[in-house]
Design goal:
Strand order of the largest sheet: 18-30-29-28-19-26-27
Mean pLDDT: 81
Number of strands: 30
Structural class: alpha+beta
Low-confidence stretches: 1-15, 88-102, 555-571
Shape: elongated
Largest sheet: 7 strands, mixed
CATH topology of the largest domain: Rossmann fold
Strand content: 15-25%
Helix content: 40-55%
Distance between the termini: 54 Å
Number of helices: 24
Oligomer: single chain
Radius of gyration: 35 Å
Length: about 800
Amino acid sequence: MTENPDAAGGTSGGGQRRELTARLAVPEMDCPSCAQKVDKSLQRVDGITDATLQPTTGTANVTYDPDRTSEADVVKAIEAAGYEVVGGSDAEGDDERNQETDGVDIAPPSEVWTSPRAKKTWLGAAFVTLGLLFEFFLTGQNATVASVLEYPLHIADVLFLGAVAASGIPVVRSGYYSVKNRSLDIDLLMGTAIIAATGIGYFVEAATLAVLFSIAELLEDYAMDRARDSLRELMELSPDEATVLRDGEEVTVPAEEVDVGETVVVRPGDKIPLDGTVIEGESAVDQSPITGESVPVDKTAGDEVYAGAINEEGYLEVEVTSTAGDSTLSRIIEMVQGAQAKKTESEQFVDRFSGYYTPLVVVLAILTAAIPPLVIADPVSVDVAGYGFTFAGDWQTWFIRGLTLLVIACPCAFVISTPVSVVSGITSAAKNGVLIKGGNYLEAMGEVDAVALDKTGTLTKGELAVTDVVPVGNTTEGDLLRRAAGLERRSEHPIAAAILARAEEASVDDFPDLSGFESLTGKGIRGEINGETYYAGKPALFEELGFDLSRTRRETDGGVVAEDASSSNDGAFAEDALASLEREGKTVVLVGTESELLGAIAIADEVRPASKRAVERLHELGVERVVMLTGDNEGTARAIAEQVGVDEYRAELLPEDKVDAVEELQAEYGEVAMVGDGINDAPALATAEVGVAMGAAGTDTALETADIALMGDDIGKLPYLYDLSHTANGVIRQNIWASLGVKLLLALGVPLGLVSVALAVVVGDMGMSLGVTGNAMRLSRIEPDHLVDT
């Protein structure tokens, strides 16, 4: 148990903290009804201002006023609900500590099969086994050993009572806490059933119920602990220690003690302890825990690295840019935990339904035990679906059937069916580089009918690059790049950066001296080289200079160039040459003087290798419409749309136009997911049912504004996200309806005498709880496809 004094704001005039937050591990609080019982107990403590209970992580964050209560009182309230607080302090006044300490993010792993509860269960199971042996097989040795109120107790009876004491008392104790907190839950129902059966001498039923239910509880604890493992694995990615350079020496310290600006050393095979920037060294870094990238990424000086990533090869020195608690990995873990607290529509339905279901079945159980013996004087034969059933009016028969209905009244499997699916889906996504900020978004993404994709930075890389260098006349590629780069050195336009990068790749560095540089707004640039004025810019700029480019920009049907085409300025390029480049969505920059064209350089924002296959995969998975939205011109938009295979595109859109486009898609197709960069597309992301941000790693704005964040720049994760969400919705529906269906069938079979207490526990409670948990865990087996164009 730990505290975080700064978790809740508020200070007095003297600057002292007015509220503290105790962050506690409560491993046995593993279902919504458990949390409800704890919540009711906490509500009775004066001074508690807020409580966030998370059964899926087994944690309780309780904010309280230290002037009115203490952390010890908070712990006592939780224990008063029947749940143990693990790792807590019993000392009074712990809440007066001034230092901030780490909180509990998830309950520690449980020793389920060797716990005190397990040992009592195994003892009870041994007693039941021996009791059944004497009751049904060694009847001659089943002697009377005592009597109570003239009721003889045989060896088997004593063994059954021993089983009730060993395995049943913990259940009855939990039922007592349920009564105390006015919570109609499974502990109360099972405790009542055990006491009632024992009280009227049905020792076999009482012992069997106590042992089977205890085994069911252990199995459910084990299943929930397995579900929590996925989140524990995520949390274990963050290193505990860092090697820091201080005063010229390497010092190993806890990661939370490293300040921003310090330099950490990362050797081959080590995890990077904190977010930072490489200042020395180069290496391949496996950052799949953060971004989900399938291959290591080369890192050199100036590159960002993330806490939890693994240094594969070289030595790195990293300047820390965020503290341990503020790293990208820490924010991912925090958001995953917060996501589990947001109830989906399915969970809300289950909560409402169970509120009616349990009381109704309890009433039916009471009526089943009480009414038939009063109204059935003689045995009655009834034909049901061709099968004959005889109903007798004896109290013993109907009491056991009422007892069985009490067991079936527990909605445990039904209630946990959605939370375990959400936990499995969200944590699995996080380990694959997809951050889903709530179960409601997990559900919504699986129901979308149309996906709207931003172009720049989503379908394309968002980085301009030279794709074609087309010299004319006697000009070589080197000469063309040398003149173009010489002009562009003074420009800060992204096109200039692309041309300079291409010149560097081609080892062109002997740039001519430039003077008289001038930017021609919206057209290009010009400057003097060796006393002659050179230009670089759009074809329209050179048309203003007197060049006739109409034939080279005219789209043709593939015919040949006229023989005299090369004898004039307009024949410097082959017919249709510029039009062909523009049709491919490329920006064309011409370079030349007032009298001579040196050539053309084509520049484009490259389409991501996985974009085409991602769109195809979305269609295969059932997405009805995939639409590209862009602010680019019609020609570029059309070229990219054709290349990636979207159903339609909309070009020359301002941010408000993208909002209108999303609303039109919603009106025509239904629910829409918008995928963008999380910043420029914020209005459209907010308008769609689900907003998905690309490349959110290291981007605070994208992490905060989007409903779902793809941590890496990998559009290939989008089909995985849809597949996971769509499958999760199916799993949730399967769990809910299977739970209800099995309960209904069992309930119908009880009055007919077809369902025993043991069958109700094994199938209706234990079996279904394990079934829904196992079904939910298969979501973790869904993995992203590696979508690349061949």
